[in-house]
Design a protein that fits this description.
The complex is a heterodimer of chains A (706) and B (341). Chain A is of the alpha+beta class and 706 residues long. Chain A is built from 21 helices and 21 strands. In chain A, α18 runs parallel beside α21. The longest helix of chain B is centred in the first third of the chain and has 25 residues. In chain B, β8 and β9 form a beta hairpin. Chain B is an alpha+beta fold. Classes of the chains: A alpha+beta (706), B alpha+beta (341). At the A-B interface, α5, α6 and α8 of A face α1, α2, β4, β5 and β6 of B.
Chain lengths: 706, 341
């Protein structure tokens, strides 16, 4: 491959990789993306001649100044500064791509791509950054070496060495178009170097102390917010999209749960005009650090969950139903404390930015049917005050339905069974809804369409129970999730969002009831590529856990775990994560090593094949040419007969000297072929090479017989 | 002492390297300040590239053997080509982008020989063009082998000891017409003019300085090398160059007297080269040195070498002169005069 075209290709790939890392942060406006992409493609076909003056430089410079002015003006108007910076960077990149005349422009493109990658770290902290980063290392290594070689060639190559004349520069164009400077093995070798750079960067990443300085600004990365989960329920709007595959929660559990878990999130107590709201936040209390009980002091056994919550446009923390305790982290020198607030209804909130991780415990065993049936007695004020509220404009038909369903039912359990039975029997789950704005959405669901999604079912049940004087509240959260056996965690996706009801049973407490028909509860997980999906999700989980969320505490934990391992002691339960991390790292190393060995094997095979084929691209010109090998073989044969070629003798002269040798004709023929193949531009077809070797063999036979 | 405490490797950032180090520090500060772990990853990459650069440059510099091919005659003020050979004695790895610089008195000469790629086990040869302004002895102490491979961020070098000496002959200046054919040199013999008349004494191989007209073309064609006729009368032509190198009273270093003495040495060298080329037996006489007259290129080398090393001598030191009449020139600070004058 030609040096110039390879250099051009790899610098474009470098720019593209850095741009993709930026693009995957979903912050670059689509119009800018399209414009930049078109400009990059157009610049590929622009080949400015370095020997001609750059007449368009003035216009380009004016364009850059104008772009800078636009960025400043936009920032002063209150626009998003980051987008302006990205736009300006892209403008500079396009400028350099269109004007890549010399090595200098290529060097500048490397710098610009690096700034793009830097911006990528701010805009994209997802797993997609990792492949971009890996590819970028390889391309950066190539580009740095190419820029170095190009500069050295331009500065050092001398054409003439004579005492009388000054040395002259070789025409640079000729070298840049040379196919002998770089080849596949060169790029392969530098790729292995990139692998070393990556491994070394990983080691540095793990060991560099995370001591936060926090000068200037407490810059926090917001992360990409997941849209969809809402702290409000408003009937009459679109339902939850059940096939949304974006993971919201990753919950590490000791073992796979036997039944779908309900992850409790927002709790709603106030219903008004088809919409649920939360009114208890003011009564929440801030939890001190350490393990803190939640709710009604539920006794063990508890299910321990390590929850990794993706950035979400909400302050809610999720826990399996019913949360019993939470470990509130203290916050370290580099990480702020997780400011947890628990409401009277057990709702957990935390002031947070970006992804968070916390440990929570839940009493997942439901109370027995017997205790529920036996639940009787007065309703305490704390349960009834807010959870019996009904809007004054609630349609009369709803109240009449509640009366009808409660007729003859005395206990809470009987009333709940009546409502549940009716909803599950007479109503259909559907997300394909058309709302008539003239009707109350609940009335429309109960008496007109009789179809709805989980929020309709839960709203209907809560309102009907309240109308029967049974305290009930609506809960939004997630149901189920997909067990990732590779990562040992439950991946809860956005499509798992669900709504259900909590009912107060006197003497028992709040109990979860789900009126949604089973067909509408669980999201349908994608059937195909499950393993691939699990693997990617596991990677993403580890990425967030060990890379994005890596901090001083984890470093200290790693040091302690390492110290225990070195002392031959087993890791404690709390250090189990480090065992996993160690295994994951060891596994990755094995994979990387395997990949390196495979690459080496491919390189060796390729090299062998190339040698067989004849002259290669990368500095394997003369010594391996089959004609030269055959000629050398002939020389060795003749030397053994005492007819060595003199150092200053040309092949032709040598052949002429042997005119009286018995094999003179053969020597002349081999010499002719050698000249033709080595210097005459002949391709050296296999028959010709064979004939050459046949002559050498005849010469050997002649020597033996003689 | 300096050589004994010399570091095995030296390294210095290039201009790009300083920029790179600055960017690395900037990224490091940003990472510490923001606790953005991805910036730590990028910082790790930047530092790893520095480490990789160090390892690869070391691989490039290791196991290299340098040799020097000194030109046979080097004259002050004239460009010459110094041959430099580099052999990669590594078993597998090639060396890339290696620069070799001659060290004169342990200081680099600022003339670099560049080797783009030196495969394992191979030797390559190149040369650099240089000009030394002053005659005398130059001591080469070794070589500086350096590389900016692989990223042009740092220049790493090591000095290799390889002593050598180069005697730079005096600058050659044009010989005036009267000095080329002064009657004083003729004595009782005819001066060599066009169509020299001596009988052919024999045929020998061509040496530098032999006249083209003496080439025996037929013999040269048969033997495949240039042969020249050697004439009997060459042995009878003699010229003595007497150089007055007595130190003038009160002469200070780099004074006007020094400059005029340098001119005298240059003139003597030029006359020596001229008359040896004409086939004369040329001798030299200075205070402290005397070279009997002889023919040929080897004699010219002896004369030029003596003149290259010539310096002031005490005026009381005897000036060795051959007995009897010998044609030639007396060369002093005041110019050139025929010897008998």
């Amino acid at each position: 491959m030609r040096f110039r075209s390879t250099h051009k290709l790899i610098v474009y790939l470098l720019v593209a990789t850095a741009f993709v890392s930026l693009l995957l942060g979903e912050e670059v406006p689509p119009a800018l993306t399209v414009l930049f992409s078109l400009a990059v493609v157009a610049s590929w076909f622009s080949e400015p001649d370095p020997r001609t003056p750059d007449r368009g430089a003035l216009w380009w410079n004016l364009g850059v100044i104008a772009a800078l002015g636009l960025v400043v003006a936009d920032a002063l108007r209150g626009g998003v500064v980051m987008v302006g910076i990205v736009g300006f960077l892209l403008m500079l990149t396009v400028n350099r791509l269109f004007n890549r005349r010399t090595n200098n422009e290529y060097r500048q493109l490397i710098i610009l791509s690096f700034f793009m990658l830097m911006l990528g770290t701010l805009l994209n902290n997802g797993l997609s950054f990792l492949p971009c980063f890996l590819v970028y290392i390889v391309l950066l290594t190539w580009n740095l070496v190419f820029v170095h070689l190009r500069r050295e060639m331009e500065e050092n190559y001398l054409l003439k060495h004579s005492e009388a004349q000054r040395s002259e520069r070789v025409e640079v164009e000729r070298i840049l178009n040379s196919r002998r400077v770089v080849g596949g093995s060169f790029l392969g070798g530098t790729s292995l170097l990139s692998l070393g750079v990556f491994l070394s960067a990983t080691v540095f990443f793990a060991l560099a102390p995370r001591i936060g300085l926090g000068f200037f600004l407490g810059i926090a990365r917001p992360g990409a917010l997941l849209a969809g989960f809402s702290e409000r329920i408003t009937l009459g709007q679109h339902g939850v999209i059940k096939d949304n595959p974006q993971v919201v929660l990753r919950v590490e559990l000791k073992e796979r749960p036997t039944a779908p878990l309900r992850f409790r999130g927002a709790v709603f107590d106030r219903y008004q005009a088809g919409s649920w709201q939360h009114s208890l936040t003011a009564r929440g209390r801030r939890l001190p650090s350490g393990r803190q009980p939640i709710g009604e002091g539920r006794p063990p056994p508890w299910l321990a969950q390590d929850v990794f919550l993706e950035p979400l446009d909400s302050t809610i923390l999720f826990a399996a139903d019913r949360p019993a305790a939470i470990d509130v982290p203290e916050g370290g020198p580099t990480s702020p404390p997780l400011d947890v607030i628990v409401g009277d209804d057990g709702e957990l909130r935390a002031r947070r930015v970006g992804a968070v991780r916390y440990r929570v415990f839940s009493a997942v065993e439901p109370p027995s049917d017997r205790s529920l049936r036996a639940a009787r007695g007065p309703i305490p004020g704390s349960a009834g005050t807010d959870n019996l509220q009904l809007p004054p404009d609630l349609p009369r038909s709803v109240l009449e339905l509640a009366d009808r369903l409660a007729r003859g039912r005395q206990t809470v359990a009987e009333k709940v069974e009546s409502v549940l039975g009716t909803l599950r029997r007479d109503y259909v789950y559907s997300v394909d809804l058309v709302h008539d704005p003239r009707l109350d959405p609940l009335e429309e669901f109960l008496f007109v369409t009789r179809r709805g999604h989980c929020e309709y079912f839960s709203t209907a049940m809560a309102v009907l129970l309240r109308a029967m004087n049974v305290p009930a509240r609506n809960v939004n959260g997630f149901l189920g999730g997909e067990w990732n056996a590779l990562g040992g965690f439950l991946a809860v996706r956005h499509g798992d969002a669900h709504s259900w009801v909590e009912v107060f049973y006197p003497g028992v407490g709040w109990v979860t009831q789900d009126p949604t028909p089973p067909s509408g509860r669980l999201a349908v997980s994608g059937a195909g590529f499950a393993t691939l999906r699990f693997a990617l999700d596991t990677l993403r989980h580890h990425w967030l856990r060990w890379v994005v969320d890596y901090n001083l505490e984890k470093q200290a934990g790693a040091a302690r775990a390492l110290a225990r391992v070195l002392r031959g002691k087993p890791l404690s339960r709390g250090m189990a994560g480090w065992r996993e991390a160690g295994e994951a790292i060891a596994g990755s190393m094995v994979w990387l090593l395997g990949a390196a060995v495979a690459a080496w094997a491919v390189w060796r095979i390729q090299r062998r094949l190339r040698r067989r084929r004849g002259p290669a691209l990368f500095a394997r010109e003369a010594p391996h040419h089959p004609a030269l090998r055959a000629y050398r073989r002939m020389l060795a044969l003749l030397a053994r007969q005492g007819l060595a070629k003199r150092p200053a003798e040309t092949p032709r002269e040598f052949a002429e000297r042997l005119h009286d040798h018995p094999g003179a004709v053969l020597v002349a023929r081999v010499t002719d072929a050698y000249y033709r193949l080595r210097f005459g531009g002949a391709t050296g077809d296999p028959p010709e090479i064979e004939a050459l070797w046949a002559d050498v063999a005849r010469l050997r036979a002649l020597g033996t017989s003689g | 002492m300096r050589r004994r405490f010399r570091l095995p490797r030296s390294i210095r950032p290039t201009r790009d390297g300083w920029i790179y180090v600055g960017v690395t520090l900037g990224v490091g500060f940003a990472a510490l300040n923001t606790q953005n772990n991805l910036l730590y990853l990028i910082l790790g990459m930047l530092l790893s590239i520095i480490m990789a650069s160090s390892v690869l440059s070391e691989m490039s510099l290791r196991h290299l053997q340098v040799s020097r091919q000194v030109p046979t005659r080097v004259f002050a003020g004239r460009p010459f080509l110094m041959g430099v050979g580099l052999k990669n004695t590594k078993q597998r790895f090639p060396s890339f982008s290696v620069e070799v610089e001659d060290l004169v008195e342990e200081k680099p000469l600022e003339k670099r020989c560049y080797f783009l790629k030196l495969p394992a086990g191979r030797r390559q040869q190149t040369s650099y063009r240089h000009r030394l302004a002053r005659r005398g002895t130059y001591r080469f102490t070794g070589f500086r082998i350096s590389t900016k491979f692989p990223f042009s961020l740092f220049r790493k070098w090591r000095d290799v000891d390889l002593g050598g000496e180069l005697v730079v002959f005096p600058e050659l200046v044009p010989v005036a017409p009267w000095q080329r054919a002064t009657p004083a040199l003729a004595g009782d013999q005819a001066l060599p003019r066009t169509g020299r008349t001596g009988d052919v004494h024999g045929i020998r191989e061509f040496r530098q300085g032999d006249a083209a007209r003496d080439i025996h073309w037929r013999k040269s064609a048969i033997d495949g090398r240039l042969m020249v006729r050697e004439r009997e009368d060459e042995s009878r032509r003699r010229a003595l160059l007497v150089v007055d190198n007595a130190r003038p009273p009160g002469a200070a270093p780099d004074s006007r007297e020094d400059a005029s003495f340098e001119r005298a040495v240059s003139l003597a060298a030029s006359l020596a080269a001229h008359y040896v080329a004409l086939g004369f037996a040329v001798g030299l006489s200075m205070r402290g040195a005397a070279i009997p007259a002889a023919h040929g290129p080897a004699q010219l080398d002896r004369l030029l070498r003596a003149l290259a090393l010539a310096g002031w001598a005490d005026p009381h030191v005897a000036h060795p002169m051959p007995s009897g009449h010998t044609p030639g020139f007396r060369i002093g600070r005041d110019g050139v005069r025929p010897l008998e004058a």
